[in-house]
Amino acid sequence: MTQEIKLRKAEINDRDLIWEIIQQAIERRRIDGSTQWQNGYPNLDTVESDIAKNFGYVLTVDGEIAVYVALIFNDEPAYSTIEGAWLSDGEFVVVHRVAVLEKFAGQGLVKKLFDHIEFFTKENGVQSVKVDTNFDNIAMLKILEKQGYSYCGEVFLAGGMRKAFEKIII
User: Fold this and answer.
1) End-to-end CA separation in angstroms for the chain
2) CATH number of the domain enclosing 107
3) How confident is the model at residue 1, as a pLDDT?
4) Is pLDDT larger for residue 36 or for residue 56?
5) Rounded CA gap, 127 and 84, in Å?
6) Fewest CB atoms within 10 A around its CB: which of 62, 66, 126, 152?
């Protein structure tokens, strides 16, 4: 039986479940020994802001929300200063706040999420996808490598240095 997996904009009535997903991800980062997301960010205000600004998206599996992500077009001030160099200087989609509902963890949904993001990017005629992650977020680092993202350097974001990656889509 094939699962139906879709990416859609988050709606305000998704807020509580999205916040639960993020809280689970924060706890997973802590258990994994990561310092990422351990300082009060992201929080419920972040989720509400993402939804209000149309940045929030959810990946659904058979209609059930499984993954949350913020997708932002051409707007990440921290990316204007990089210790290194981006692959391109054209339009881009920024990926932030990837979080998986616990019951879906370990099922390869973040890879499917990135496939959907790349399709979404191409459909919107945007040149590339840019993403950053903490140096100790091993799971995300492995996904970015498998998805063909290039390490571009480091950016200062959310109070610390982050590894920055880019993939040219078109």
Assistant:
1) 33
2) 3.40.630.30
3) 64
4) 56
5) 19
6) 62
